[in-house]
Amino acid sequence: MMKEMKLSESVLVLSCVLCVSADVFHENLYISGCSDTEGEALYSLDGDELWYADFIHKRGVEPQPTFIDHISYKEGTYEAAVADQQICKANLNQLRRICRDVPLELDPPDKVMIYTRDHLDHGANNTLICYVTGFYPAPVKIYWTRNVENVTHGASTSVPHLNKDGFFSQTSRLQFVPHRGDIYGCTVEHPALDQPLTRFWDVQVKPLAPGRGPVVFWGLCLTAALLAVMTGTFFLILQLIGLNKCC
Known about the structure:
CATH architecture of the largest domain: Roll
Shape: globular
CATH superfamily of the largest domain: Class II Histocompatibility Antigen, M Beta Chain, Chain B, domain 1
Largest sheet: 5 strands, antiparallel
CATH class of the largest domain: Alpha Beta
């Protein structure tokens, strides 16, 4: 409870469980968050994002993987999220006045990971994911680079998710086409960090299967040796034929 009260100094995050089955437990979660300058709204199912509000481009986004049945949200979901932002900011102002004298606790992220959504296939569209967790308060700022060039404008960042331990996690996604030699960086900023934390991910050349290189090498050597033996045998036969004719 203390952590939730401290959060009001910077950002207010409200969440509720929308649907729980008695036979099979599924957590359909709606999260609405806001600060003085930013806002977040998110629907998730069992921890996977199904829909979030992109307040910069003024639209709803459904970042669902291709291997599941797509779930579409009804028209007006984005407009409802915009209305929730006004309520959230009003509540934030109220909580800021109530918790004015509560000191703010700062905990830096304890894990930053980068991985691809789909199996890596050079030249094919894919999604690079940067997962940040273990921080307090929310949110973190996440920046992307490709070969030192800033490509954050092409990324989307989720609403902070409150974990059961009282800390937050957040995810950023970058659409990209992998090319050999490219190096991507995910940089995280948080008030508890003395300097930004960066993790790198590089598009590597697919290696040969284990042991394949030596097998290919010795195979070529064996072929060359056989050709040499066959060539020597051929010339030996010609010499024998010539000797027979002479005799």
